[in-house]
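Archive record
______________

***
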Amino acid sequence: MMHAYRSHKCHELNAAHVGQEIRLSGWVHRVRDHGGVLFIDLRDHYGITQVLADSDSPAFADLEKVRAEWVICIDGVVKARDASLVNPKLPTGEIEVYARGMRVLGAADDLPMPVFGEVDYPEETRLTYRFLDLRREKLHQNMMLRSNVVRSIRNRMWDQGFNEFQTPIITASSPEGARDFLVPSRLHPGKFYALPQAPQQFKQLIMVSGFDRYFQIAPCFRDEDPRADRSPTDFYQLDLEMSFVEQQDVFDAVQPVIQGIFEEFGKGKTVHADWPLIAYKDALKWSGSDKPDLRNPIKMQEVSEHFRGSGFAIFAKLLENEGTEVRAIPAPTGGSRKFCDRMNAFAQQQGLPGMGYIFWRKAEDGSMEAAGPLAKNIGPERTEAIRVQLGLGEGDAAFFLGGKPEVFEAVAGRARNEIGRELKLTEENCFRFAWIVDFPMFEKDDEGKIDFSHNPFSMPQGGMEALQGDPLQVYAYQYDLACNGYELISGGIRNHKPEIMFKAFEIAGYPNSEVEKRFGGMVKAFKYGAPPHGGCAAGIDRIVMLLADEANIREVIMFPMNQRAEDLLMGAPSEPLNEQLRELRLRVLPKE
């Protein structure tokens, strides 16, 4: 007896099956009518098989009616293709199926967007008909990549001695840095649960409970504004925590997992095994970003001394103010006026007055000379000192930005990326990782108030003693993993001592009562014997985005929200029924 729907899948048939009677089911990928001979590409999850019928076939009349994306079942016989017609790109390219019978399993209306061919359709249409979008080859491959990456992560974590535990999805509101999604309670009217922004407190409690190595592929919920590399409502992370560890132990556990994933799924791109540790302040100084792209070898340097009291009045005057500096972006091989002018224009597009530059070229007497307006203003001695410091020579250039670093740093970082790309200095087809360490524990907000600059649960370097001095000088055992200009991982060694935790929160302006109220469960647990512990979380969507070589995170999420945090397919968010609101004792205020 043959199976009701298929004897084979659409990737399985080859020359060895010639002459066999078979049954296939799938979607009509496309129909080609060659005057009396119909060719149908039949597609399922696994692949494509070419089906044909001529006017002698009993199925011909029925097959003439089918259209793209109908689901049909074909009975037929496997035939060898002529040698000249073999398609080496398809696993089934040596054969075709001569149709003897056909049943329609699911007819399709006219399509709002095509599945065949990679046509770029408006995102609104693609998300409204996501089930059609997902039938397209590229998205189908992205989703399979994601599934395989997650499976591989799980296996690698188990191999490293981690155990997977699930933490609650409905919990208490907690300030993790973003807005919570609130869930009203029916049994406790007027009270609300929250969806967890991360399993942070629970994973720390798991360590206090005596489990040594935890991980989870965890959903996280944050009410955030969308960006190209961030989902606006929920995302998944590889969450992990370890007991009795220092920072290096976490790095040693994580690197083989992440590096292994990139080697397994990186499509042959080079995965560099050298993961340097770069201090947060150095990352900002050298690359203008706390997630530096190390494929670009350019390192920015401070060159303030060469401009102090110099003939270049703009910089000399700037440097008289506190907290200012002049930074150079070296540009090896960029030594032409044309290139320098182009980069100056780039800086102006980014909203800066421009970038000063010096370039070095061959003079008429055969020696090397420095050119550009800056070189004339500051004179040959200072120009030469700059060249020596930056390690540049003939045919090279350098660009200069001055002021308060926090004002020009981001633009300097973009200019560094642009210069690396334009001069083809940036390495291609590779992944370069770096641990960014020594994040400041505290920062000043716009009002000059001290607040946490990152995760409030991190252990300050130097413990309680460090918290007695200037808070802005305190570093945290807090780290990120950067890859190709994206942040993939964030983590820290946790503060497991209640007295240090109270002190850290006190510096940030939270009294003990507030800490007890917000983190009561965790503070209580730390009073009953807490081990030193630490961990991190890696963004799964972002890892898959890098591996799939996509610039937009929605291309690797099965059912994503749009830019306005709406689910166009399911119609979320939606208005609740009056009965639901009554049951929850809630009222919706009219728009103001």
